[in-house]
Amino acid sequence: MKPLQNDLFLRACLRENVERTPVWMMRQAGRYLSEYRATRAKAGGFLNLCRSPEMCSEVTLQPIDILNADAAILFSDILVVPEAMGMDLSFGTGEGPKFSDPLTCRADVEKLPVLDDPTRELGYVMDAVATIRRDLNGRVPLIGFTGSPWTLATYMVEGGGSKNFSKVKAMMFNEPETMHLLLDKLADSVAAYLNGQIAHGAQAVQIFDTWGGILTSRDYKAFSLDYMQKIVSKLNRENEGRRVPVILYTKGGMGWLEAIADTGCDVVGLDWSIDIDVAKARIGDRVALQGNMDPTMLYAQPDRIRAEVKDILARFGRGNGHVFNLGHGITPDVPPEHAIAFFKAVREESVQYHR
Amino acid sequence: MKPLQNDLFLRACLRENVERTPVWMMRQAGRYLSEYRATRAKAGGFLNLCRSPEMCSEVTLQPIDILNADAAILFSDILVVPEAMGMDLSFGTGEGPKFSDPLTCRADVEKLPVLDDPTRELGYVMDAVATIRRDLNGRVPLIGFTGSPWTLATYMVEGGGSKNFSKVKAMMFNEPETMHLLLDKLADSVAAYLNGQIAHGAQAVQIFDTWGGILTSRDYKAFSLDYMQKIVSKLNRENEGRRVPVILYTKGGMGWLEAIADTGCDVVGLDWSIDIDVAKARIGDRVALQGNMDPTMLYAQPDRIRAEVKDILARFGRGNGHVFNLGHGITPDVPPEHAIAFFKAVREESVQYHR
Description:
The structure is a homodimer. The first copy, chain A, is of the alpha/beta class.
C-alpha cells in the first residue's frame, strides 16, 4: 500500500500545520450522487450495499473522485451494530430503518450480547474497511464511525426513527437502571467495533451522537456523554505509527462543548447553530473543530456558497485545528454541482489563512 | 366581568412577588385530553373548531378545570394568519397543515396583503378571545399568541411542515430581499393581529418561534429575531390598567438568550436543553423565564415527574420571575393524570421558594 499522499485531514485533527483547510462532509457518499444511486440499485438495496465490501468501497470512493474530498468515510449504517447484537433490521423502500423486535423491558436488554469480536460479528464491515484502504491506495485517510450508545438506543427502543421519542424517554425516566445496562453494553460493543475498524485500517474515527441533543443537560451527561467517554477511553489511539484521531459530534449539543472536549477526544464536531469563532474561543485551545456550514446552504447558488465558506474561514481565522465540514449530513436533493462548488471554495479560499 | 382572582402568572411575568410559582403548559388544550377530542369531533375537525368562538372557549377552559392551570391560552392555530392573507389552508385527518398554493417567487410575496384590521380579517379569533374572557370570568389571565414571522414563512414557502426546509432556506439564501419582504409583511400583520387580541381581552401574548432554531446565529438575527423585535416594538403593552407581558419563545434558541432578552420582551421561553439556573445567570436580571421541563418527562411516573419539578425549582431557587412550563408542547400520547400530577407538584413544591 502506498504511503498517505494527502494527510491534511489527519494533521488538522491534531492541530498541526496545514497548507490549507481540509474538507469532507457527512453523508458525502449518498443519495445526492447519481453514481451512488446506481451502485445501490446494482446492490439491490441499502442493506445489501452495506454488506458488500466491494460495493461499499465503490461508493466510499465516489466523493473522493467527484468532490476531491480530503478524507473518505466508511460507507455503512450505524444500525449494523444492534443488528449484529441480534435485532431484526430492515429498510423499506423510501422509508427509514425498522426493528421488528424493539426493546421493551429489562429482560430484552439482559438478553442482548456484548460484541467483542468484530471480525466475526461484523466481518463484512471489517472487510469493507480493508477493501477501501486497498482501493484508496493512500490518496486520502479513511474515517471509521459508529453511532453513540444513546443514539443507537433510541432506535432499538423506539423500533425506528421517532418524533417524540416517547418510548426511549419513558424507559430512561422510569427504568434508568435498564437504560444504563443497555448503554453500557452498547459502549463496550461499540468500543470493540471501532477498535476493529482501526485494526483493519481506519485512520480516524467519528462517533455520531445524532440524538444527544434531545436530552436535558444532566440527562445528556448521564445517558450519552458518559458512555461516549467510556468508548474514547477504550480506543486504540495509535495505528500504523500515527495517532488515530477521535471525533465526537453531538447534533444540538453546542451548549455542552466544554464537556465534550473534556472526554479526551481530538476533534469536536459542530452543528450550524453556533458561530465557529465562538466555539473556538470556548474549546479551541484543547481540541480541533469540525464543521460547521448549514447543510441547507447547499441549496443556494455557488457564489452564495462561496461567500458562506469565506465567512466561516474568516471566523475561524488563522491557526490550526479546523476541519471544514457541514454541520450535519448533506440532504438527498442537493445538486451535486453545488457540493463540488463548496469543496472547491474551501480549497481555494482557505490557503490565505495558512501562509 | 369579575376582577382577576388569580394573577400569579401576570405577576411572575413582571418579576413581582408571588406566593408560589405559577404554571401552565404549551398545548394544554390539546389532543391528550379526551374532553378536547370530544369537542373537536363535535366541531367536525380542527379548523372548524378554530373558527367557532364558543367551542374555542370550551377547549381553552378545559385545562383550567382539569389541571388548575394558572393561565389560559387562546385555542387557535398559528396558520390562521397566512390563511387570512389569502392562502388556502387545510388539515388532512391525522396529517399536518397543508397550503395548496405555497409561495415560490417574489411575485407571490408581492401579491400578499398586509393585515391591518383583525376585527374584519380574523374576526372569529377576536370573538374567541372575547368569549373566553367572558367564560373565564376572572379565574385566570388569558394569553394570546402568534407564530413568529420566520416560523409562519417556513410553512408558507414549504407548503406545510418540512424535514429539511429546503425551499424556505433556498429562498432565504438565493433571494434574501424576497424573504425580507415576506417577513416584513408578516411582522406588520402579526403585530396588528396581536394588538387586536389585546384589544379584545388578551392579558399577555406569546410569540412562538418554533423554527428559529434551524438557523445559524447570524441568520437567526437577520431573519427571525429582528422581525420579532419589530413586533414587540409595535405592541400595545398596557390594557385594562395593567401591563400586558410579552413572551418570546425560540425552540433551539438557547445560544441566543441575551439577544432574545434584548428585544424588550418581558419573558423569555426556555426549551429543555438548558439548565434554568444557567439561563437565570445569563438573563435573569432583565427578564422573567418560562419553562423548562422536558415535555417527555410526562411519560414518566408521577413520582419521577415530581422529582424533576423539585430539581427545576431548586435550580431557579429563590427570587421572582419564573413561570413554570414545559420546554415545548405536551405530546398527544401523555396520560392526562401525569399532566395533573405535574401541575400539582409545581403548586405544592414551589411555595417554599416564595416565603
